[in-house]
Records
---
Amino acid sequence: MRVLITGAAGFIGSTLAHRLLDRGDEVLCFDNLNDYYDVRLKQARLDRLLGREGFRFIKGSLEDRDALDAAFAGFAPQRVVNLAAQAGVRYSLENPRAYIDANIVGFLNVLESCRHRGIEHLVYASSSSVYGANRKLPFAVEDSVDHPVSLYAASKKSNELMAHTYSHLFNLPTTGLRFFTVYGPWGRPDMALFLFTRKILAGEPIDVFNFGKHTRDFTYIDDIVEGVIRTLDRVPGPDPAFDPLNPTPATSRAPYRVYNIGNHRPVELSLYIELIEKALGRKAEKRLLPLQPGDVPDTEAEVSALMRDTGYSPETTVEVGVERFVRWYREFYAV
């Protein structure tokens, strides 16, 4: 297939691009290489892809409607994976307009390009953050997600609503994936694993929010990408069991689906830090702090729908995943 990936210089996007190229697909990366985090890491991910047969790259932003439409016109993709977004919960408190520009305006441009170019299937990144103030665990796609606690979460819920509208009005097949705390080699420097590893090696204290008591459904990058590919290959149709008198947010009479994609094995942050310390062979100096605004105490993915529909089955334990990340980090940064 010809697959356009927005954000393919990012963590998930670059790993996905390699997997699709491995199986013989053609891939176009559309990415603006913004400076939300170290551009050198994004460029290093991209450099590994640039020499591969079947790979092309266009630098551009989702907000640039003309550039995005030109990319669609020149490449003529059959399917699209939208991973480009302004990421981060805490940053949305500092720069909320960036989330509207990239995640709302940018996503509208993606939807419009897909609509007018006859795309077979749009898969897009949502987030576990949409569960917001929910406290029922595990989080299920059938649950209401109407109480976001960050603008980032609100923008991702908006993406799901926008996608449903296009699925309903224009018969565009869309699948939203609510990612749960993705980690692993080539990961994002603003995420806990990367931050903790860097600071422990530098002998600096680490900030441990919620006093290390909150839990996260840490999901290894290879398991995430396997789930993305399985959903990309399965074009949704209308759900014959959809009941408009008792509607679920997960399916529709339109060709629309939303799935959780997680490890469904939550781990307490304090244990996560212990695994990092073990892999590094060093102890962390911890600054214990309360929960930050916009964060939630716990996450856990209920993934039975994704397993039923695609055969998804995460395999990587957090012990294995953390060790692989630390090995990559020490090799990449020569520390």
Note: The CA atoms of residues 275 and 319 lie 7 Å apart.
---
Amino acid sequence: MCGVVGIVGTGTVNQSLYDALQVLQHRGQDAAGIMTCDHGRLHLRKDNGLARDVFDNQHMINLPGAMGIGHVRYPTAGCSSSAEAQPFYVNSPYGICLAHNGNLTNADELKRDLFREDRRHINTDSDSEILLNIFAHELAEQTKNLSFDENDIFRAVTGVHQRCRGGYAAVAMIPGYGVIAFRDPNGIRPLVFGVRESENGPEMMVASESVALDTLDFDRVRDVDPGEAVIFTHDGNLFTRQCADEWQRSPCIFEFVYFARPDSIIDDIFVHKARLRMGKKLAKKTDRVLGKDKIDVVIPIPDTSRTSAMSLAHVLGVRFTEGFIKNRYIGRTFIMPGQTARKKSVRQKLNPIDVEFKGKNVLLVDDSIVRGTTSRQIVQMARDAGARKVYFASAAPPVRYPNVYGIDMPAASELVAHGRTEQEVCDWIGADGLVYQDLEDLIDAVGKKGKSAVRRFDTSVFDGTYVTGDVTPEYLDRLEADRNDDAKSSRENQRPANVIGLHNDG
């Protein structure tokens, strides 16, 4: 999972890009990067770490220019070497840089085609570099001379859609021309754009989530449609066109469950309100399965589940309270490499307030249960704090299948619900009772019972149905081999040195 941003301004945009990455930091804590363009020259700074650690004052001084793109990263594909931090750059044609959120499901096939047919070399294991080179090749095919216009770019994006499969939301920049953004034909990963007025004219911005626009006082225009491309030229023009022959709105429902900030709007759905509706649905099932009379207090597992837990408690008429204090400087645990690191981080991340647990029947509410490791430790922490009974409720259904569209979830064998019944999961995490959200209720909650423009969500992590229709058992077997903890540890032990490329300031 990653966050992307692109801005065309009327003055220096480095601070705005940095501020946007800070707001999008929840989407990626492994690496950060910014590339700007000043009078046709590109300037780059990228490295592993949080945005606040990657950029200092001197780095910002070295990022001049009135347009640029930025990226925060979790290493879904490839390794976590700083060589794979984004944006990426290719010099032909024209010089193009790109940052990408998502995952290409036919990356291996595309990499072979790029080498054999397009005669392009890929220097990392990142599918983002593949996407950049596909886009560059398609643009070169459209422009046999030095000049090009928006129509050539739209045709190039059409070529990308015809060749690439999977989920992708990308921002690209061409020196002396502008910023281009496009979204896969299923709209799996989010992308939104907006405009703000300045003293010198309009400024335009595209980002993974609307909260980045809000923070920088851009007026949200709308989401980039699935399959659509949006162009901001350096001289203030805005062009949009649908570039896919067939498209549908099928956003990843896990964005609403967990990843997106609650103050974001995705495909015209308010994430906060979706989570409130999740809590109401979950409350009704909790009453059926456990009975509200068994519960003395509802306690959220911070932070994502807080909205759903508040709503659940209100519907049940049960007291809601905060029972855990969170250390906000520890990253998300289900994405951390290695079981030992995850176990250690949970204890560092949360500390119970004993008085809220002692002698009570507690209902813990979380947004989802992925590996189960965190849930198991939290249940035990509640018992150690003196809880009489510990029940557990998940605002999402059982996560039984891997995500293939850009969320670095574990291999299927490492998902606690994979191959287990709900009762077996309950026993494994050590709870006295477990309530999972029903998938139909989750879809109704996020989709406002069919009132939104979204007619289908990608719910593959829950039901194994992948919206692109190209995910085979063989592909999932390769994914299993690539994503398990042993494979990740092996890659981390063989990190390459920084690759040769565009000058990286600092």
Note: The two ends are 26 Å apart (CA to CA).
---
Amino acid sequence: MSKIRKILAVVLAVIMIMPFAMSAASAASPAAPEFKVSLVSETDTTVVVKFSLAKGSFNALDFTIYTSSAIKECTKIENTKSFNELVTDYIMNKDALITAISNPTAKKASVITTVSFSGSVDIFNITFSKKNSTPIKNTDIGIVIDNCAVTVNTGASGETNVNVTDDVKVAVSLMKFNFNETSIAMNYKDSRTVDVDTNYPASQLTWSSSNENVVKVDENGNLVATGKGTATITVTSADGQVNETCEVTVSYTIIQWIIIIVLFGWIWY
């Protein structure tokens, strides 16, 4: 009977200790943050990208920017408006302080804070000069994380910094494509161009129609309504980043209905 009691005592002790052990294990191996680089603006001579925290948290970060031959130089690394507001909030709190350091010439930037900040926040706007008017690609700008630390609460022993540099992810998405219209209404035999917001060259986009008996589309997004009905226009990019659709509905005007019904237009029109 005493053996059974001892076994039960051990089992209960293990059950009680497990949550603390799991907590300590998770504290020792925190999730690394994820960052992203996205396009802010682009002209024939300059390009501005945004470096943001996309997911997770950190309290120390150093990174180096690498560019292709399409980029002449890095001319400016500055805090975004939202990051400046965050810095102000931290300074108002006596227990927290953020320091942001950037070196455009060396293409390096750092952020250090006494407490972690997390969520989704834009940190730096980075300006480059370009060699020519060709739109930049995702491969023209890269970020290498030199150092990244996450503050972890270890319970009774307080907080500690864990180096997660090797696990940090950075996604670069400089190319963009968006339909400015979710759906398009046309009349039979009308033609028009799809309104889009993109920096992709036309040669890198492929347009298609799900039903060319309703609407045809050429390589530049020009539509021609060929019959009554609904069809889906699909656009894909050579780099695989774009796969967008837009619905087109084609109708007859009153005059066209008269031609089709009264004048047997269904045969010849």
Note: The first helix runs from residue 2 to 28.
---
Amino acid sequence: MLKVGIVGLPNVGKSTLFNALLKKQVAQAANYPFTTIDPNIGVVEVPDVRLVKLAEVVKTEKIIPAAVEFVDIAGLVKGAASGEGLGNKFLSHIREVDAIVHVVRAFEDSDVIRSGIDPKTDIQTINIELLLADLETIQKLIDGTEKEIKTSKEAIGNLEVLKKVRAGLEREILAKDIEIEEKHLIFKNRLPLITNKSVIYVFNVSEENVKNLTPEVETLIKEFQPFVYLSAKMEAELAALEPEEQREYLKDAGVEQSGLEKLIQVSYKLLGLQTYFTAGEKEVRAWTISSGTKAPQAAGVIHTDFEKGFIKAEVINWDKLIEAGGWNQAREKGWVRLEGKDYIFQEGDTTVFKFNV
């Protein structure tokens, strides 16, 4: 399951967004720092209209969407890496996630304690704290590697990489952006550094800006990639509605997708993830895999026995299965392919695995 951490300065809308994602008031939202004392964790279903269409074709009422685990981490402040605010306790939670959603305030609100909009400075404040935390981590790794040099030839190369990374962090370059020779990339990318993680910038805009960004706001956020803009307040209102009411709400607001849908789509793309389906009379289910995953490993996401005993996979893309009207009709038309161990699963593939128990 994809695990995403929500971070940002206090009072930027993190907890409001988290509440909206979970469709209930899990995290207490209030206008003062450190409202979220313990990181709130919640599992959110991934919206996917394809599931409903597949369920209609295979005649099942049970639908199991893919899911994303969101972790709402307390607002960091300047000096967090050295213990200010709630300090390292919360930096440790960020290390456990697959990607970071960095919520940035891009709206004016006289009720919010901190006035003014300055995304660039806000982002830099958070990044400095993460860089400082990473410098502490990298120094510990360097110290440990230096002790291994006498007994390990590999340690010599690793130490060189660690020192290059430290030099980059000292120049305020995020670990993921530090250039390293290709032969050392795997080692560098596996380092337990917060700034090694992929980041999505979520700009919390006013409800008026959701349909059309003002030139001023667009100028403020365009240099940060990848990004999503949404209104956390609007997402919270949307989350309180039934599905049909949500569609009407979005239509009236003049937008095609909710912020959640946009955020998950960008997250999947950033991390190189995709979805395949299993669809039968018992259930229709979405499974998340990395792009480039071969058939046996895709089967292993369901159960390790599926991967070990993999024989073949019957595969058809979801839209062709719907066009055919079901599995039997699709087989009669010759649209269902029998794929082997070297087949690389594609986005939207729908499958039945053949395996030995």
Note: The chain has a mean pLDDT of 86.
